[in-house]
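User: Assemble these into one structure.

Assistant: Restating your components, then the assembled model:
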Amino acid sequence: MKDVHATIKRIELLSGNLERIEIDTGGEFDEILPGQFVLARPAGRPDPYLREHWIPVSAGEGTLAVERGVDDLYGPGQRVDLLGPGGSAVEILPKARRLLLLVFDHPPTPLLMIADRALAEGCAVTMVLGGAAKAYPLDRLPPEIEVIGGDDDEWLWPDRVATFNWADQVIVAAGGPAPNEIYAELWNVVRRLRMEVVPEGYALGFFLPPMPCGVGACGACAVAAPGGYVLACQDGPALDLGKVNLP
Amino acid sequence: MMTEIPIGMGKQPLILKSPVMPAAGVFGFGGEYGQLVAIDRLGAVITNPITLAPRKPARGPHVVPLIGGALLHTGLPNPGVSAVIRQYEARWRALSVPLIVHVAATTPDSMRRCAELLDRIEVVAALEIGVHDQITAGDLTEMLKAAHEGTLKPLLVRLPLHSAAALAEVITGPEPTPDNWLDAGGLADALVIAAPPRGTARDPGTGQLVGGRLYGPWIKPMCLLAVGQIAAAVDLPVIGCGGVHSAQDVRDYLEAGAVAVQVDSAVWVDPGVLDAITGEI
């Protein structure tokens, strides 16, 4: 964990409400792993007060690339404070050859480095985009990924059961006001299809609440779990859906 | 060069070698910021609030961003005092500065039991007692008496901002004598002024109104006023807390009468702020 002053090199508009930011980090975060994050805030400004979590879409050769909603907080040449890398890397299960990535009302950003890793390891990757995620520009996704368009409003897509039966591992990123309800529905489907025997790490969900500290100190990102709680900034942000309390 | 700051004369005094320390609730249970902060330059480390029984996180949103600050409603998640001791005692022993455990008990009995368990842990230098915002003077007195029954370690009491002055008078009371030590004075060895004030704000993600504690530099003028008034009125050491974001903020609290200062949410915004402050003070 380190606190780094970095500089924005370039900003590219990806769609009407999504931009890609490339940051010169001097190589400080070249080793960040899929699923990990940095906490960012504009240097020398009072607002936003708390840092925003950025899960990179790529890292290497001194550059960190992230995608985030468009606003006027950042511009080329601007200094940013980055704290990280935080959280735990997402592990693709050792025997997984078919990875199902589900995105609903959230950009697929948290899943892109995971997809790259899975493809590099020879896995087949299918991504379902539902709700607001359907607005994501598909030309930004690796062509090897099979993309399925989901429903605009509900957690549905063609051949839903078949895709679950196909997958060796499922990773989901849900947004909107109640992502936990989506995770709960997903978990119930997985349990039914797997006859209640779900391997550890089979179904992961991204928990991305505000993280004031990012180092496991403040407890603000605590997620209730059997026997207590886990911290999204330490144990996550991708958490095993079988190990957290869902509604 | 600062002189040592003793707290808790006559028992097992807490000696602060710096007037700067993180506040309860921002720095974890011990060592979480070890890679980012020069802990040996702090006066002490204060744990997150610990309760007798484990506590799960609050339901609903835990953080509401505000202009220049934030509202937090965490529910004080912690695994309970016994589990905290098991998990963190080794880390506490490795700290190079005194450790203060913040106890957030809800009843005198749970306070006594927490104090008894922590009294056995040599590395715990003092307890900081956190109380709920609506506590009465009578309930606070009972809570502090219970803490004294459980431990001889120095007791710091963190008071709610809105009632800090009135409660401070009760805690200090008349001049203590050997016969009335627990009933008049002697209930606490230092006052922490103050706990982050409470507020309500709408969470932009869910649209819900959320109640919680407020953090940000704009808290400081309110807490600074209270510190000045209370430090002038009582004989106990006062530790200032609220909105500190710079060495000048610390100087302001010391000038107002505080003997030491706790830094809260500024640590989240910029962990380097503690090193910057301790380097200047």
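Chain B has eight helices and 14 strands.
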